[in-house]
Amino acid sequence: MEILSLEKHQVISSLTLAELEVVVTQLVQRVLSTERESFMPIQCKQEVPFDSTATPFWQIVLDNSNQVSEEIWDSIPEDASENLDAYLYGN
Hints:
Distance between the termini: 46 Å
Structural class: mainly alpha
Radius of gyration: 22 Å
Largest sheet: none
Number of strands: 0
Mean pLDDT: 79
Shape: extended
Strand content: under 5%
Order of helices and strands: HHHH
Helix content: 40-55%
């Protein structure tokens, strides 16, 4: 089954598991084969060479989070990520 063979009236819920697997696989392959630049707005496209000596983003986050005291971490509510707007804006 090709993605394009799906009719407008067909819905995902009407597909068998095997058909759904084919559709998802084809979608993933299509996305992976599309150039990354095509997803970026024109103003974001820049020809910046890769700097292999730059500190990875995850390392920067880890280094900064390690500088936060346990007292501060303990003061963050357990549901902060789920209710961020409520904590920031009082909604």
